[in-house]
Amino acid sequence: MKQELKFKVNGEERELWIDPKTLLVEVLREELGLTGTHWSCDTGACCCCTVNVDGMAVKSCSMLAMQAYGREVTTIEGLADGPTLHPLQQAFIDNWAFQCGFCTSGQIMAANALLNENPSPTREQIQLQLDGHICRCTGYNMIQEAIQDAAKRLQKSKV
Q: Can you tell me the distance from the alpha carbon of 64 to that of 23, in angstroms, rounded to the nearest whole number?
């Protein structure tokens, strides 16, 4: 029997009727068409499906969609301001912090949660936040440098 799910996704109120066993990643990708959230391992081990739920980094393949009832979910698509990329997205481009891009959205969303909580993280704090995020294409140094660069950009934009 389907249940009503009401939540906010990327700033927009959404109402859906879903099977209570449906995962959040399934709702985002299949019901809402937000395919920037990737689904890979089915176990929560790779972190490609990371989104922000009430500002916290969450593996959407490990969360039932009904657990998001009444909450705010932000996906990679929700970071940009129209055609203007979020500083994290731009920093990943400028610092060559991706190659194939499959894991990038999960890393950016994890970094977004970190920077919202700690606007000036150390390299060790960034490493801890990205623990478990698997990237098979690029070096993790460029990813960490991109996050540090984004932190500086965000601090400048607040001045």
A: 4
